[in-house]
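Hello support,

Our group uses your service weekly, and this is the first time we've seen a run hang past the timeout. The protein is Cupin domain-containing protein. I'm not sure whether the cause is the sequence or the server load. Input pasted verbatim:
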Amino acid sequence: MKTIELRGKRGNVDNLDAEVKTELLGEDHKAVRESCVVPGPIPEEAEELEQIYQEMENLNIKPLWTQIDGLMPSTPEPKAVSHHWKWEELYRLAKKSGTLVPVGRGGERRAIGLANPGLDGNTYISPTLWCAIQYLQPGENAPEHRHSQNAFRFVLEGEGVWTVVNGDPVPMRRGDFLLTAGWNFHGHHNIATEPMAWLDGLDIPFAHQMDSGFFEFGSEELTDQSTPEKSRSEQLWAHPGLRPLAFPGPMSSSPIGRYAWEHTDSALNAQLELEDAGYPGVYEPGHAAIRFSNPTTGGDVMSTIRAEFHRLRANVSTKPLYEVGNRVFQVFEGQATVQVGEQTFKATKGDIVNVPSWQQWHIEAGNEGVDLFCFSDHPIFEALHLNRTFSPKGI
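Update from on-call engineer: The timeout came from a worker crash unrelated to the input. Re-ran successfully.
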């Protein structure tokens, strides 16, 4: 019998897709719904039903029996689809926008959002997550504002930009992961001689659907235009295993403004070195991975967004997974083949690929290995106890 891994409060085979059910249970399960289908109405009943349905429509009510399959499918049926955005194309359009579109009040940010083809034209990469490329020219300032949506920045390449969060200047450099939790004033300025582009991630779609979004303009000029080597938040909080006694208790979001690349890189290398020495540490054979965490709780950096970094040795493949929730990957270095459902994407540096909910996915590194930044909405589903993970290959 096949061994399976199924995590979640309601973990059972009823929630697997048809192919997996057939493999585990045989063909009989396919007839269950068919055997429960109610015969159609006779002509006299059909005419009367049409009248009833029209009355219901006039009263803005709908019968459950005409929509049960759409409301309660056997397994999740996401509208979002997997898609591959190429960095070369994204950067080319961002650069062109840089010569045509000013940064300032009104548009606020020169950001290009990634619109999932399955989400009716909305600039959402998933039903819960927003992903965009932001581009800042040399000498430009993006004015301060704040919003209730959680946000982060991930820097693919370059330096010379500082983001100012509640008056704290935070440097942005290659490989850095930076936080702007909800309702914190923030702006950016580029003091370099070259433009800079980075990845923005927010929970805008989730906040929009929940009607929980607030926005407020801040200072036109940045409240602090200094350019320190480290932000004040890093000086206070970014020391492994050490916490300032001046700030006890949990915080809803991480107080660390910048997770510097040198620490991420070192942690990943250490895992692989332990594997080479025969000790545990890697997530899977040849697969080092870390999660960015809130030092006041040990949990995720923000309540709605999880952020991770993955490093795969040459030609290593991850275990195929089904998960409730949405993931987004960006290739930091190297090349990878990303398999999502029936689609295969060949991704290179900077490319972005999304994984919709309950779509089987796995990643295979190229001949020189691959580094991947990843963010997801998994904290939302875990907080609601709706998270679920299944691996066809077992534990």
